[in-house]
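Cross-check.
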Amino acid sequence: MTMSIWSSLLAKDQALFTSINSSWTHSFLDHVLPWCRNAQNWYPFYAILLVYLFIRWGKATWKWLLFAIINLTLTDQISSSIFKPLVHRLRPCADPLMAGKVRLLLDHCSGGFSFTSSHAANHFGLAMFIFISLTPVFKKYTWLFFLWAGVIAYAQIYVGVHYPLDVLVGAMIGLVVGKLNGMVFKKFQHA
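Predicted model, tokenized:
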């Protein structure tokens, strides 16, 4: 990719970030989206999901849980340990070129680099894994896990800690890992 194409892509990415973070805002979203991106707020949801699976599958749930943990470990490590150190892209809230243009809705700017979004990778990876492994359980409602991942990923941009491209590539990583891991799980599910 030539430098002019890359520069143009980054400029468009920054412009879209500014629109989402500063123009396409609402006071309701200013309160809800920071809450949505906080992983601790989702612990009750995960606990309810696990209890439901234990009731439905019994001990077989341990195999599902193991694959879910593998899935999260892979998405997180690919994003945090491979892409972020390789690309070294600053977060919008830490980027001197974006100073004065970022509306940070958190009490601090997260440390580390921005590309790719680990939140997006982890949640889209888990959504895809759930879609593949739990469609027989949740039937047509399994797509709601993608909506959940999308809201969390969008919140990363909205609150000022990621650019849209960070989130998009993070989501793609998650979808690929979740699909592969889900396919492996299905092969070993009944073993």
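The CA atoms of residues 38 and 65 lie 21 Å apart. The chain has a mean pLDDT of 94. Passed to J.P. for a second look.
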